[in-house]
């Protein structure tokens, strides 16, 4: 079936079954491989995108559920908060292998855009994004830095 959604500001029609995970559609059909596959079950946060402005796990949203909605991926995220987060990530040299980082950054931007930048909330929300390289201390420092 043909499913139309907005990806990074561009109306996009994809030919796929409605139950295909959004993550598959982004990577395999739209060619946006910045969003990563980790667990495929909603546990690790590697696949985090923005769905109508809120952080969402693309492996756990079907294409049908995303129809008509606005999706922003790491390739298309823009704005003042995104710039502050990206700058803070560089200042704190957060990334190691980098695999989890798109998801971490998308979660951080959504958190800060929702108005939360206190240490307790940052810890609670960011703890849902796993990092096999254990960059947690630098992630927390960068998010708090970007929140100032
Ligand atoms: S791949 Fe989606 S939460 Fe792990
Ligand atoms: S930087 Fe390697 S998994 Fe997070």
Automatic annotation (TrEMBL):
Residues 1-77 form the 2Fe-2S ferredoxin-type domain. InterPro entries: 2Fe-2S-bd, 2Fe-2S-bd_dom_sf, 2Fe-2S_ferredoxin-like_sf, 2Fe-2S_ferredoxin-type, 2Fe2S_fd_BS, Beta-grasp_dom_sf, Diverse_Oxidoreductases. Keywords: 2Fe-2S, Iron, Iron-sulfur, Metal-binding, Oxidoreductase. The keyword Ligase does not apply. This is (2Fe-2S)-binding protein. It comes from Novosphingobium decolorationis.
